[in-house]
Amino acid sequence: MKLKKYLSLTRAGIIESLQFRLATVIMVIGNLLYLIVVYFLWKSIYASAETDVVNGMTFTDTLIYLVLATALFNFMEMYTVWEMGRNIQSGKIVLDLLKPMEYRRYLFWSYSGSFVTQFFFTFLPTFIVVSVVTHGAVPLGINLLFFAVSVVLAVLINYSIDFIVGTICLYTESIWGINIMKQVIVLLLSGATVPIAFFPEPLKTVVYYLPFQSIYNAPLTLLLNGSPTPETVFEILGTQLLWCIGMTLLGKLFWKLSLRQITVNGG
Amino acid sequence: MKRKGLGFYLRIYGKILAQDLKSKMSYRADFIISTIGMIFTNIAGFASFWILFRNFPSINGWNYYEILFLYGFSLISLTPVQCLLDNNWSLRSYVYLGDFIKYCFRPINLFFYYQSEVFDIKGLGQLAFGIGTLIYSWIKLGLGFTPLMLLKVIVFLITASLIMMALQNAAAATCFWIHNSFYLLDMTLKFKDYAKYPVTIFSPVFRFIFTFIMPIAFIAYYPSLVILRPDEVPLLSWLSPLFGCVFFWLSYKLWMFGAMKYSGTGS
Amino acid sequence: MPPIITIQNVTKEFKVLNRREGLKGSLKDLFSRDYKIVRAVDNISMNIEQGEIVGYLGPNGAGKSTTIKMMTGVLEPTSGEILVGGNVPYKNRTKNAQEIGVVFGQRSQLWWALPLIESFKLLKDIYQIADRDYENMLEMYRSLADIEPLLHKPVRQMSLGQRTLSDILAAFLHNPKIVFLDEPTIGLDVSMKSKIRELIHALNKEKNTTVILTTHDMGDVDALCRRIVIIDKGKMLYDNDIEHLKGFFGSYRTLKIRVDGILSERAEEVKAQLPDFSVSADEEWISVLVDEERAAVMEVLNQLQSSFDIRDMQLEEISTEDVIKKIYEEGVE
Q: Is the pLDDT of residue A90 over 60?
């Protein structure tokens, strides 16, 4: 079966990440510590404000939003740009290109194992802790389903963006510079550091027309909204789907063109 | 064999640095892209900061310019760790692949030899940003200026740098025991982002943790009090230079202990 | 003069986690405390004299690198004593480092981005080499190899062979008493291999430097070493002259004959006639490994000639490679 060869990559990834057991424990503890820091910071920020609701978000909303954004970030960060950059510089890419699998798929599925471990070791604990701490402020209903679908799309969009940026490494040796620029832009414009609701109006408009908000803002908006109208769901998921298709195609094309360039000129 | 004092090490470092800069200049594109990346990071940092303060006028009794002061202070104190100890980021992979062994055969201090290999020039851009921010907030706060104040700022900046170096050293050194210690290093980097907020926002337990166990409060908060709140400087602020030296010394010992214990992978 | 290296009853043990197989096993390992002790080096002793080139051999995982790491001060032995040039290596690592040079196969210790000459200059400062000694050494290098084109080339742009050559030169630069070479010719082409061997040989002769060489290439051993030490599974199997080793296995020689017909079939017939000997065939020859203590080669040849029409023949001494292979497989009685 075709899927089988991909799933065996997933399985290998899980086993590999479990090899580092202490690292796993540290990851869980570190993540919880981080949640606490975010909690205190925003609690005192809200305490300093005159009203309970700022830009339509209460303290609880903001907390859930930011904490889960971080959890999503940990979950989605695959260090694709680093991996590609290193493989390109060391020449290992040639071996990967020889695998009977498209490179972008191979890379994705090699990492998919860590999705599974990350989900169980960071996202799920975080989610549970947040639900308990906020006394069930996270609505548990149909929104969970929308959230799940939205996260899958977000993972794909995020990966496509990473892959496009990684492809740039075929042209330059500056992996660090490329990667940091990507990370900074994605984190800020996707609403992972400050919720997009807090952005000033003109910036908000700009951000909504960019693909980045589909990564963090879209799934979290769906999650926090207990009774969304069908229109909202349709609009958010539709936008994500469009970006997903668009970015995937763009990534494929860019990779193909770049690779041709390289093979013609000799790497 | 002649004794190897401070002069010996400074001379060697100077020579390696000069050679390193020379060879970096031949990769101009990399240098430019990295610098742009650094500028991006700082602008994004300011942007989220600015967005936050548009919505909330103050945090825990600290106004915009005061927090900006902390921010600038922490940027400057991060410069030495960025410039001098950047090779710590590669430590994990050297240890994991067994390549660390190649540093063990030289008749000079191992820690020095390892760190001397990389000087990260990008850190200087950050320094410029930090100094700019500090001066701007200084003027806006109308703090006035005396030579004594300058002396205090310099002493406390060195203190803060020592703390930051200590944190990163300790986090990097864990890879001698834990294989994949990347999370720890990454976590330290993440936590240091919170150094720019006053430690008083945390509950007593976490205030203790961030003062004595993971001493990020010393990176900007305690030292800044000396300038910003000269009337209510706690004893801890005055003690922070001492703490800086102690923490750095401890982290150095830990690093060296780990390196000595290290046995290399493979047969 | 006392030996430059003394190793006495040295043992090194490691603690490793017992890992289980599969996904379930990995999950269990997360909580497991099931360690086992692995003895990488098991009670070995040897003395090495100044100026010797010693081949330190053994199959993968035999404990060679562990021994070298102990001699260079990176690892502390679990028990036993090591003295290198009068130092206890792991106690005086930096002092010991001043007296030794190390080359680890493919791991270059040179500054990646710098031209070789700049690396040399840095090493000159680090090892505090006097100007005159440094100049003399470079002069000698120039006479031994064509280093001019390498000096101004950054290490990262060098081929593997050039890099190995540079690494070896760098290891000898401070005129150490002992140089450890870990698989110096691995991955190199034939001509580069022989260049590297000549260089090692010349450097050893010029400065009377002791060289400890680990390798899997018996060409290195034949070209450089008189003495070899073999270890396997941490235990010392052999420590003596290479000539002695060959005699040690009885006087084996290989008799090769060429006959008409399909060689593999004829080889079966030869085997039937000589049941006590090991017989093999390739495209050209049928080979018979003759133990001269049991039968003279001429006897065997006569016997074969009576039943086969021999077109051509060759007689070969057993190669070091064959001997080492036999030792790895059968051990030493």
A: yes
Does residue C261 sit in the same domain as residue C128?
no
> Which domain covers residue B150, as residue numbers?
6-261
In this complex, which of A19, A48, A184 lies closest to B60 when CB atoms are compared?
A: A48
Please give the angle made by the CA atoms of C10, C14 and C17, to the nearest 5 degrees: 165
Is C276 a member of any domain? yes
Q: What is the pLDDT of residues C83-114, one digit of tens each?
A: 998 889 888 888 888 899 999 877 888 888 88
Whether chain C has a CB inside 8 Å of the CB on B2: the answer is: yes
Both C181 and C85 in a single domain? Answer: yes
Chain C residue with the nearest C-alpha to that of A22: C30
Nearest C-alpha neighbor of A85 from the set A216, A181, A184, A151:
A181
Mean pLDDT of C171-199: 90
Q: Which amino acid is at C166?
A: S
Shortest alpha-carbon distance between residue C32 and chain A (Å): 10
From chain B, the residues in CB contact with A23 under 8 A are 178-184
Nearest CB to B60 within list A34, A44, A181:
A44
Domain count, chain A: 1
Q: Which residues of C touch B108 (CB under 8 A)?
A: 94, 126
The whole domain housing A128 covers: 2-265
* Burial class of B87 by CB neighbour count within 10 A (0 to 12, 13 to 18, 19+): middle
Closest CA to C110 of C25, C191, C53, C171: C171
What mean pLDDT, rounded, does chain C reach? 85
Q: Which domain holds residue C279?
A: 250-317
User: How many domains does the structure of chain B reveal?
Assistant: 1
Question: What is the ipTM for the molecules in this complex?
Answer: 0.78
Full-model pTM: 0.79
Give yes or no: residues C138 and C274 share one domain.
no
